[in-house]
Each structure stands twice: as C-alpha cells, then as structure tokens.
C-alpha cells in the first residue's frame, strides 16, 4: 500500500499571506519597472533624509544612552530569563554568532572602500593628507561603532527580555506587551510581524545581490571566470543559497554556530596577514591615535547634523543618515537572531558585549585595512587605489595586490565573503521562518528550503533586471517608521523592567510583621478576600476608631492632648497631637482604591472577584511619608503601630540636626 504523506506547515496565515503578497509585489514591480521604481523611491528617500534626518540622529542617540544607562543601573543585573537560567552558548560562540549575523559581508565590502571614499572626498581637506586620512578613519569608526551596535542591541535586548523573562513568543509583537497586553495576539501583532518579515527578506535579498557581484568580481580578477554576467551569478547564488539552507536546517546549535566560529578564525588570520605584511608601525600608531580622536569627538559626532556647513550636507545624507537607516532596517533580523542566542545573559553582560566587543573589533579591522589602503595609495600607488573608489566591488582585491601572496589572500577573501554570506543568510532564513510560524517549536524542513529558493529567485530576477537598487532604497525608507517603533520598544522595556525590579524588591507587607500563628484561619480568610469600599469604611469606623479612642484616653493620662479627626466622612480618620513649636504628629487611615489585574479576574484558582476595583485601608503620616496597607491589623496591633511611629517622631525631634524638618512652620505646609 502506498504511503500517504500529509502536507504540514507551521506558517501562520495572518503573517505569511500578507507578507508574501507584499514581498512579491514590491520585487516584481522593481524588476519590471526598475528605473521608474528607483526614481520614485529615491525621491521619497531624498525627502526623508533631507527633512527628517533629525529623527535618525535623535533615535540613534537615545538608543546609545538608554543602553548605557541600563548597563550601569540596577536593571543591569536582571537576567534574560528566569533568575536561575544559564547561557545556552559559550561566550566565544555567542560573540561569534552575533558578530557574523550583525556585520557579515559589509566588513569585506566596506573595509577598504569606505575609508578610501572618505579619503578622496571633496568634503574633507583635499590638499592635506593628514586631515583627510584622520577624517576617513574617524567617520568609518563612527559609522561602524557603538551607534550601529546600539541599534541592533536595542531590538535584541527588548526581544530577549520579553521572550525569556515574560515567556512570550520570539516576535517583535512581544515588545509591545506592557502597552497592548493581549492585543498583541490580534491583527496589530500580525501587522508588526509582517513588517519585520518583509524588512528581513528585503535586507537579505539586497545583501545576497551585492555579495554575489563582489564574489563574481573577485573571481574575474583571479581569472577563475572570464567575465561578470548573469550566468555565473546564477551558479554563485545557487551555491550560496544551498549552503545557507543546509546550515539553517541543521539548526543554530550546529550549522550556524560552526560556520560562525570558522569565520571568526578566518577573519583573524586575514587581519593578522595584512597587519604584519603591511605598514605595521603605521597601522598600530594610526589605530591608537584614531581611538583617541574618536573619543574626543564622540559627542560632536553623535549630535552632529552639519546644519552649519551646507557643503557637507549631501555627504552627510549619503553616509551617516544612510548608515543609520541601513542599520535600523536590518535591526529586526539581527535583533531577532541576537535575542535567539542570548538566553541566560544578564542585561549588563548583554549590553556590554553587544556594544563594546564588536565595536573594538570593527575599529581594529577598519584601521588595518582602511589605513593600509590609504598608506599604499599615498606612498606606493600614487593615487591608483583612490581612482578605483567608484568600483568598490574590485577595490579590496586591487588593494591586496600591493601585499605579498596577494593571490592567496584574494582566495581567502572570497572564501570569507562566502562564509559571511552563508552565516548571514542561514540565520536570516531561520529568523524569517521563526517570524512566519510565530516561533513554533517544530517546523518542517521544506519551509527552510522555501525561503532559500524565494531569496535566490527574487535576487537573481532583480540582479538581471537592475531592480536591486530600488529594493535597497525601499528598505531604507522603511527604517523611518521602524525607528519610531524602536523608541516605543524602549518605553515598553523600561516600564516592564521597573515592574520587574519592584516585583523582586517587594518585601512582606508591614501588616504581617506582628503576626504569630494565632487566629490563622481568620488571617487566611482576610487574605483571600477582596474588600469593597463599604467594608473598608466599616473597618475604619470600628477597629481604627476604637484603637484611636483608646490611644487618646491613654495619652490624656500622660498629660498629652490628642484629637481624633474624622473629617465628616466614613472613609478617613486620623489621630493628631498638636504642637506650638514642633511639627504636629499625625497617624491616619484612609480608604484607598486599587485596580485588580485582568489575570486575577480570569483565574479560577483564586477568590472570586466581581469588579476590577478593590479597596483597602492605607495609613498616612504627618510628614508625608509613604503609608501602607493596614487591613489585617487587629485593634492592639494598630495601637502598637501608632506607638512605633510616635516613638520615631520623638526620637527625630530630639536630634538637633533635624530642626529644619520639625519646626512649627512645617505644620501649615503639610496640611
């Protein structure tokens, strides 16, 4: 008998259907009308970069300072998971994976191209080599440093916290939970995930396209292939996507982790090769001076808008603002992957590692490659490398020709680009499948193959039709609304962290301090009942009034005049001892409203609650200190509590240093 296999999928229709419709529509329009699409999208991008660039500046700045604040605050010790959770990956594996996913091919593509483009730009002092070289390094550091990783860290931290601390799905919708509560499971949540899925797909597609062009260019320069054309690009895409799908199907613990480790070792070998066979002394000195220059100019760079220097504005839009938009557009994908691998880390450990370690490595990498290229261009090549800045695909390979063993180094660069792409694409495929399935625990492997094929087909169509640039521009435009969503992530995260800290810092109620095992049945009945306003008023008019009456009588026997104030209402009462020179002593009890969580209303294994509103008797004092719930006090316990505060009052007023707090003119101000 033939075996029948049931077609299974973990895709969620509310996410996958609108996402595919939008992805296919945008890609096909970009391929069919590349020039028109690019023209319209470029006009939109130009308007945003010129008129709304301050949004990018302020949001990125907020992300940097917010994460630094969390790292040094008491929130830093909170774990991304339960308090006893442990990291799933070793520190080296963790850093390798987040670094490979976060930067990838960009390090190879821009490590020589960006410093050289800044170095040859008319924006800088074209007649002074030193100023041009310093500025090239400074702005490369700025674009690849703490600010870029703060964008990734912001999304990654929010996702990891809500996923592992609140046990919500690994999804951007989860970051809105403190604000939207269960509404994240409806259409609003689906819309957020659709946005994240489309943004991730567009980012990986454009990276695949540009990575393929650079690999093809390197193979042509090495005479491995005769030319750069669509035929060779199909072969390259097929190889890269096949490796990516295979790695993704083996899971994060195997394929992704292994390739990330291999890549880190490979880039370190290439880095040391250029460092020791290039102008070593110059590189070490320029790196040292570059770090100092970056620190000295950190705040000017962070808040700089170039508004006073109009001639630099086009450069500012084309580099800094474009970079911030690019990092933001990539942050859903990178943030999701970083969150996936960060369970068990503390917030302090997460922020410090994500902000500092990749930043330092990027600075070393960019200094070694960028400053070597600048040194060769000035000292050996007589401007030949600077003349190639319009061909960044080939610039890395042309630069290596000035070093010994250049052919071997070029092969290594191609291998690293391939591995970088595979590590980016396999983690991207994993993330896209996770979004589309709402983080399902079990996924059929055909879904990984599906994402790989879709990436390959659409990237090749766009490459052949010339629509890849339009898609990249589309991705940059989506960064504007997502930057606002990221600010809301921060608000939501801070609200949740505050609740988290207060939850674990909350001690036993003051009411429970004098408890013994006597009358424990009555205590339990009181604990599991939610009081109405009328019952609290009855408590005040009976237990509280009786206690205050007995206290007034006893004070009178000791020649102390005490009065009871009920303000003509049933919901408030206080005992007061007035003074002429000293501040008055007051101890009062009032009816206080509190709102009950919806979870309590829905929970069957808790006492029945008919209304979200509940009331309790709360103490208050004459010096405006915060009071507490006294609903469980008996008459004697309430008398004891008043006497404790009166003893404190007498202790304070006898100390000379407290004169400013106990003088009689304070009585009027505290009324």
From TrEMBL:
InterPro entries tied to this protein: BCCT_CS, BCCT_transptr
Superkingdom as given in the UniProt entry: Bacteria
Gene Ontology molecular function: transmembrane transporter activity
Segments traversing the membrane: 15-33, 53-72, 92-112, 141-164, 191-210, 230-252, 264-284, 316-338, 350-369, 409-436, 448-468, 474-494
Bilayer topology annotation: Multi-pass membrane protein
One of the Pfam families matching this protein, by short name: BCCT
Alphabetically ordered keywords of this record: Cell membrane, Membrane, Transmembrane, Transmembrane helix, Transport
Subcellular location: Cell membrane
A single Gene Ontology CC term: plasma membrane
PANTHER family assigned to the protein according to its UniProt record, in alphabetical order: HIGH-AFFINITY CHOLINE TRANSPORT PROTEIN, HIGH-AFFINITY CHOLINE TRANSPORT PROTEIN-RELATED
Similarity comment text for this entry: Belongs to the BCCT transporter (TC 2.A.15) family.
This protein's name: Putative choline-glycine betaine transporter
UniProt organism field: Sphingobacterium deserti
